[in-house]
Write a structure and sequence with these properties.
Layout (H helix, E strand, L loop, with lengths): L5 E7 L4 H12 L6 E7 L6 H6 L6 E5 L5 H12 L4 E4 L5 E2 L3 H11 L3 E10 L4 E3 L5 H10 L10 E3 H7 L11 H9 L4 E12 L6 H4 L1 H19 L4 H13 L5 H21 L5 H15 L1
Parallel strand pairs: 1-2, 1-4, 2-3, 6-9
Antiparallel strand pairs: 4-8, 5-9, 6-7, 6-8
Helix pairs in contact: 9-10, 11-12
Length: about 300
């Protein structure tokens, strides 16, 4: 077995000290111990560095950016630093159940076709458990055309898939880079989700995602539409011109609306026939939301 079968990657910028400690300790206290823990401090201006350096565990590999690179560049820097067969992600305000890494590496070892693996998770701000489909075909189709199924802080990825396909976080997809990442991976490897709640997440009203929610939703829509246009038979030039209008905030015509609606119906029919019950029932409402955003 490799010295570090898993690389756990966390990027941190001005995290709350109590939440950062909980995140770090949730990894250090894993039942599975064969990992390196790469923590990148993205030029924080609070006590983040003091919190990280207070832990004397040789599995921690600490890096500090001289200037704030922001989340995408820091995450890609972290991917380059990881040496493990698998890379697990965790945000600095979330934390993992003690058995998370053990369960994920066990699954990944038993399923060499899986490139990315999430888990069910609990939203701490609502006390709600979130369960996504678990089977690879369901996860692939929904991730590519409907919605994200892998929560970032629950994710584990096969590093070889990244290296072989030059897969990184897309700098042009700010605030939705994780969604784009899993969408991209679905073209190179299978994805799956463990049914157990192994991750606990927080949502701060002043967080990056919440304060940029409108743009994030727009970028998710762009990713989904790009996949739909690329993967299905259609007048690609025409539909891409409609997508370009949406990106630029230009209203589309009635004829363009009808063309897009007809194409979305084609996607709905394809996906709904291939996704398991009950998830096939969410395909139409989710995809038709895209049409409503276009007008």
């Amino acid at each position: 077995m490799d010295e570090s079968l898993i690389s756990v990657l966390m990027t941190v910028y001005n995290a709350r000290s109590d939440e950062l400690r909980q995140a770090i300790e949730s990894i250090l206290n894993q039942t599975y111990e064969n990992f390196e823990f790469i923590i990148i401090n993205d030029a924080s201006t609070n006590d983040t560095e003091d919190v990280i350096l207070s832990y004397k565990d040789n599995r921690i590999k600490y890096f500090k950016n001289e200037k704030n690179l922001h989340i995408i560049a820091s995450a890609n820097k972290g991917l380059d630093l990881c040496k493990g067969k698998y890379i697990a992600r965790l945000d600095a305000d979330d934390y993992s159940a003690p058995e998370r890494l053990e369960r994920q590496v066990e699954y990944m070892e038993e399923h060499p076709n899986i490139g990315g693996l999430g888990t069910s998770f609990k939203r701490l701000h609502t006390n709600e458990e979130v369960h996504f489909p678990t089977e690879p075909e369901d996860v692939k189709l929904l991730t590519r055309y409907v919605m994200g199924c892998i929560r970032h802080s629950s994710s584990m990825m096969r590093r070889s898939v990244l290296l072989e396909n030059n897969l990184k976080y897309d700098k042009n997809c700010i605030y939705a880079e994780d969604f784009k990442f899993w969408s991209d991976m679905s073209y190179f490897a299978d994805l799956a989700v463990l049914p157990e709640v192994l991750t606990f997440t927080r949502l701060h009203k002043d967080g990056v995602s919440q304060s940029n929610l409108a743009w994030q939703n727009k970028m998710v829509t762009v990713v989904l539409l790009d996949n739909m246009i690329r993967d299905f038979q259609c007048d690609k030039k025409y539909l891409y011109s409609i997508l370009t209008k949406y990106i630029k905030g230009i209203a589309i015509s009635h004829d363009e609306f009808i063309a897009l609606k007809n194409h979305l119906e084609q996607v709905i029919n394809y996906v709904a026939l291939r996704v398991s019950i009950p998830y096939n029932f969410i395909v139409r409402p989710f995809i038709m939301k895209i049409l409503k955003k276009m007008v």
